[in-house]
Amino acid sequence: MEIRPIHRLPGRLRVGYDRRRYPIRQATLAQTLLLSQEGILDVTLNGVRGSMLVRYNPAALSEREVLALFLALGSKYLEDADLLESLGAVEPHRSLLAELLGQTLRHVVRSLIMPPLIGRVLTWINVAPRVVRGAGKVLSGHPFTSETLDTAALCAALLSGDTRTASSVSLLLKMGERWKTSPARPPTAIWRGRCWLPMRLPRCWMTKGRSGACLWVLCVWAIA
Fold first, then answer.
1. In what order do the strands lie in the sheet with 40-46?
2. Do 50 and 114 sit in the same domain of this protein?
3. Whole-Å CA distances, 201 to 174, 191, 218
4. Which CA distances in Å does 23 have to 18, 28, 48, 85, 93?
5. Tens-digit pLDDT profile for residues 79-131
6. Domain check: are 100 and 203 in the same one?
7. Residues 70 and 118 in one domain
8. Which of 61, 86, 111 represents a domain boundary (last residue)?
9. Is residue 76 in some structural domain?
10. Which residues contact 198 (CB under 8 A, 6 or more apart)?
């Protein structure tokens, strides 16, 4: 498999590959085969950008050996029909931007066409799991965590009757969680180094997943 190193740190290597030459199914097979190798701790595939983030044990493997593992993944493996079939259903990776825009659009449309009473009921249903998690943190002796603070903000808005704010906060939290867990999220080094904004975003916005949703605050608040 032909790859190009993009970024490297001890125990961490990001490589890029040609998405046209290696479609998502073959890239997923390469990810699976790499994970089976001794010394490889984790492989995160980004099918949208055409890259893989490999975390490995420096005591067991060197960077050169990790790159050699990629080179060993030739057509003998990546074009093997039995291996490809063994993967089962492989969902194509969607653009993170498209997902976040879709969530925002659904939120705006729902707030415009849905009767207020139904909207309030759905908002309570959506935030209920967060309230339960926050209450669990408090009962376990951890009152000052992100979950408890999120719960306090949502409860304050709901108890004051401001379901619009509660709904918007819930949306932003969901978007932040999606940002944090998405393999399609751009590397933070690229955001910090090539940010198009006149003033680069603070480092905390890039490293804390939930704060990534702050990019959408102005859009949601202005439209919702």
1. 4-9, 12-16, 51-56, 40-46
2. no
3. 21, 8, 15
4. 8, 9, 10, 14, 11
5. 888 888 887 776 666 666 777 777 788 878 877 887 888 877 888 888 888 88
6. yes
7. no
8. 86
9. yes
10. none
